[in-house]
Known about the structure:
alpha/beta; Purple Acid Phosphatase, chain A, domain 2; six-stranded mixed β-sheet
Amino acid sequence: MKPTIRFxxxxxxxxxxxxxxxxxxxxxxxxxxxxxTLLAYNRLIELAIEEKVDFVLFVGDLFDQQxxxxxxxxxxxxxxxxxxxxxxxxxxxxxxxxxxxGDKVDLTFPDNTYVFQSxxxxxxxxxxxxxxxxxxxxxxxxxxxxxxKMVREFNFDRPDVYQIGTLHGSIQSNTDHDVYxxxxxxxxxxxxxxxxxxxxxHKREILSENPYIIYxxxxxxxxxxxPGEKGCYIVEMSPHQTEVEFHALQEIIxxxxxxxxxxxxxxxxxxxxxxxxxxxxxxxxxxxxxxxxLHLPETFTSTVEQxxxxxxxxxxxxxxxxxxxxxxxxxxxxxxDWNYDRDEMKASSQFIGEVLQAIDDDEDPIRxxxxxxxxxxxxxxxxxxxxxxxxxxxxxxxxxxxxELIKDGES
Length: 411
Ligand SMILES: [Mn+2]
């Protein structure tokens, strides 16, 4: 009978993320941001030791770029050495970001670490108490794009032990990411793997439970579109049962917060209210980068200007670089919720009706931004526009237009 095994499944460490779009942050905060991936990794190592796992899987994109920083390489190695001191093995594959590193000479690891070298599927045994109990299957990217349907290349030929497949790639219907080593869920069905450890998609997701097919997501979010807690899974496997449990590791949480029902009557009250909220968000176990969505009551219609919101943002952040558990408000998106009967306006025969109709007919607003979104410089510094962001921009634009049109009508 196979013994119970416990392992950690992690992916997409992106240890040397440069955080290019965030250089404007105060020095001490930017320093925390740049170190966040390394801190999350160190926590992962501590977790592995505390939880006495048998081994750790790192499924691709350990590094963000080809020119890895010395600091990230050293940190990675030190962690692996710590694992070795506790007799914990590690299995590493490289992904589309750190492709071609399988045979890099300067990346030598302690002998508890097994690296999948090439795009050929390889397997490594795992021994517990002198007995072979598992086989870990995987491959590494040799070039940036692996377009092959890699799932089909696996050959699970050791049903006498636990068989674990590792795969850095994306589901074929996925539109948010470049499609690498694409697969469809059906592709897994013909295999007899006991667990599929995926990497590449940074959002945590359990695609299937029998067997488990899991994206753990990255261990530290890198921008506002990688929100919430980030971490890894601890998997406990016995012959008849597999249990998985998520563990958060992040140092910084990226998050969007919406304030809908402000009780403030003026800017001063609003400022006080936001300061109170910010304090209530402060948390001793992590730091925050927040995008704030502020829906102000109608009383603010004629009294608030963008320049005042800019000032408010500055004020809110002013002392944060002296805090250990800082809460940094990255942006404030704001609008005044004034009540107008949209349906009635849209139905009217006036120009405003035509405008609202045109706005509703425009289902794909990204095309207006295509030139901007595809610009190389912009791409480097601005996060990709999500549907949510686009909807919001559209709603804000509508408010501006309607407001101006009504104002003209009044005068
Ligand atoms: Mn990645």
